[in-house]
Automatic annotation (TrEMBL):
Gene3D superfamilies on file: SMc04008-like
The organism's place on the tree of life at top rank: Bacteria
Coiled-coil intervals, chain numbering: none
One Pfam family linked to the record: DUF1244
Residues in SMc04008-like domain copies: 30-95
Protein name (Swiss-Prot/TrEMBL): SMc04008-like domain-containing protein
Organism of origin: Donghicola tyrosinivorans
Amino acid sequence: MTQLDEQTRIELEAAAFRRLLDHLSTRTDAQNIDMMNLAGFCRNCLSRWYQEAANAKGIEMTKDEGREAIYGMPYDEWKEKYQSEASAESLAAFEVNKPQD
């Protein structure tokens, strides 16, 4: 692998993250529960990680602000527009696979 300087690595990671957010904004059919069941993380996880990173840098960010940064709109608005009722199968799978925090 090509050796990257720290700044270039950060820029590439940021670009990949922005692309992930853009992709998720167009794939509103990908429900959070399904993402959790398949990948072990979802948009809410990303928003929490984003908020935690901001807080670690001394930037005050609420849970709602973190979610809006990831969802591109207030969370309640996203849920109203795009979230569907989880199937019994998805809920059962989540109970088996959910993180043990």
